Amino acid sequence: MPKDDLDAIDCRIVASLQADGRLSNIDLAERVGLSPSPCLRRVKRLEREGYIDAYRAILQRDRIGLGFSVFIGVKIEGHANNRALAFEKAILAMPEVVAFHLVSGEADYFLEVVVPDLEHYRQFLVTKLLDLPIVREVRSNIAIQTLKAGAPLPLGHLDPPTSTRR
Fold it and tell me: pTM score, two decimals?
């Protein structure tokens, strides 16, 4: 959907919900300057039209025993065929993979994998990733410290232009 479909109130709604997805409709309506009924209708429309994809809690990885993050560049044999689609489907089904991108550059795909520790990563690498027949090369980068993750999307480009008329 093009950003032109969002007016100033829609922009305030998505920014507010991105900052706090647990806002009640009454609090959200107050924040964006609407009464509750029209606010709820707008939220439902934004969900229906795919601007709002889901609501979820952001967990502290290390607190729940998933403090080992690895960023993996994967090169595959061939691209535009059923084997590449099967590879993508297999990766999408792996719960350890929390982000998966088709990229340009040295790698064909870039994965973010979260596991409890190095041994679990070794098991993931050997029994899952390298077991896929299309995988040609894997380069792993282990995160030493996570300084920022799961940040809200930068929505500044959604702000309507300010008028220069006086």
Answer: 0.84
Query: What average pLDDT does the chain have?
Result: 91
The CATH number covering residue 49 comes to 1.10.10.10
Q: Is 146 or 123 the better-scoring residue by pLDDT?
A: 123
Q: What mean pLDDT comes out for the span 124-131?
A: 97
Please say if the pLDDT value at position 162 is more than 60.
no
14 and 31: one domain? Answer: yes
Q: Is residue 149 part of a domain?
A: no
% residues pLDDT > 90 (the chain): 79
Are 111 and 97 within one domain?
yes
For 27, the domain range is 3-57
DSSP the chain: --GGG--HHHHHHHHHHHH-TT--HHHHHHHHT--HHHHHHHHHHHHHTTS-----PPP-TGGGT--EEEEEEEEES-SSSHHHHHHHHHHHT-TTEEEEEE-SSS-SEEEEEEESSHHHHHHHIIIIITTSTTEEEEEEEE-S--S--SPPP--GGGSPPPP---
